[in-house]
Amino acid sequence: MKVKQLIKVLGIKGDFSDRFLSRDIKSFQIDSRLIRKGDFFVPLKGTRHDGHRFIPDALEKGASGFFSQNPTGLEGEVPVDDTLKALTEVGKFKRKRLSIAIGITGTSGKTTTKELISAGLEGFYGTYQTPGNYNNEIGVPLTLANIPEDAQLGVFEFGAGKVGDIRHLVNIATPEIRILTSVGHGHTEKFGSFENVIKGKGEIFEGGELAILPYSLQRYYDLSRKITFGPEEDADIRIVSAMVEHSGTAGVFEVNGRRYHVKLPVYNLSTVYNIGILLAVAVYLGISPEKVLGNISEFQLPEGRGKVLKFGSITVIDDTYNANPLSVKNAIKTLSAIPGFRVIVLGDMLELGEYSDKLHREIGRFVASSDIDVAVFYGEKMKLAYEEAVSSVRSLYSSDKGEIARIVKSLSDNNPIVLIKGSRGMKMEEVIQKIPEF
After folding, report:
1. CB contact set of 377 (below 8 Å; sequence gap of 6+)
2. Rg of the Cα atoms in the chain
3. Which residues make Cβ contacts (< 8 Å) with residue 283, sequence separation at least 6?
4. Apex 155 CA angle, 153 and 158, nearest 5
């Protein structure tokens, strides 16, 4: 958009030069380090840092203009009362250009579902999606503000840490199709209780045209128009089977009485459930399941969410992006289903509050009942899981990531398949980075 249009959208009164008003805005940026010539800088005030300090840096890099809550007298200034609110208004304006928007939330599976839907709808719509995990009160307005001119359909991810977060985000993005991928113990510390997680995630359904959710969760919500997915007989998109094979993950789906088979070159059982969501979207949009499944035949998981890496005879499944009890159990199930010598490396699951000890011990018992050959635990809370697993599975505990990498390397004669997972704050990817050192 042009600066002139931006001024009009925000209803700002003032004297601006014709030269400034005619400038093109290539994109909106909140980080001055990412500014390219023609970008518009949005400085945000946080509790620790004030982006206004970096306005000169943004201009030096060629910014076409900038918002400011404090008068600077610099060329390119657009004065506003609140820079985030101004960005949000731009996002709401740009959102109106889309024919349809899809909103996604859930304890786990948001990003993979977003990527699957975008890949599956390729060729049917000009799609635009949340970049990375820009799914909070800043990331969503920024994502919307940068909707390109040729986009027809948007796929947006919404994260939440407490009741009210999802309501705020869907009121900004107003998606027609609203998806709940799953509900589990994630961010329970901030939500206060599991019941509040259910309530908070359910805010996704306050409005919109269609709700898509697991069959098992529909009892928690009063929905007029919905499509359910899951293994249950009465699910609208029935997942008949899900399995992990040598070449990847396979699933069988039943849609309107007809069965469809799919195989992906990834190792993650929950991906099959995410495909169930894609099929629900396809049914609603009137697109044949065969065509969307054909579009995802070579699908690869996003970085840190199941990407497969090779270190000589060692195969590593990098699932280090984040962790909660639901996703960790899925990781254990997935690894248990892969033929071979199976090693799991687990770091702490964070933000579980008063439930933390209980849920970590539960994970230890889950490992103990699985088909894992070796389990390695890292972190203060995973010590509890180790105590539960050690009597049933060959288990090791270490507080040193280098030592864990050495343990993994010592198992190379077994041609191991090693799945590594932990909460974002545990930085379990550092274990992977150290493996080549031994």
Report:
1. 345, 346, 364, 383, 385, 386, 389, 395, 396, 397, 398
2. 24
3. 227, 236, 237, 255, 256, 289
4. 145
The Cα–Cα gap between 200 and 106 comes to 10
Strands (E), 183-334: 210-214, 226-230, 237-245, 248-255, 258-264, 307-311, 314-319
Residue 186 DSSP code: S
CB contact at 8 A, 360 and 382: yes
In whole angstroms, what is the distance from residue 15 CA to residue 262 CA? 60
Centroid of chain to Cα 103: 12
C-alpha dihedral sign at 223, 224, 229, 235: positive
- Name beta bridge partners: 309: 316
Residue range 85-143, pLDDT digits in tens: 999 999 999 999 999 999 999 988 899 999 999 999 999 999 999 998 899 999 999 99
Phi, psi of 193, deg, nearest 5: -165, 165
Which burial class, exposed, middle or buried, applies to 413 when counting CB atoms under 10 A from its CB (0-12, 13-18, 19+)?
A: exposed
Cβ partners under 8 Å of residue 111, min gap 6: 133, 157, 302, 305
The string of pLDDT tens digits covering residues 187-233 is 666 677 878 888 999 999 999 999 999 999 999 999 999 999 999 99
Conformation bin of residue 415: beta by default, left when phi > 0, alpha when psi is -120 to 50 = left
Contacts of 47 (CB under 8 A, 6+ apart): none
In this model, does residue 82 exceed pLDDT 90? yes
Quick check: helix, strand or coil at residue 325?
helix
**Residue 408 structure tokens:** 């993994």
**Residue 188: what pLDDT?**
65
SS3 41: strand
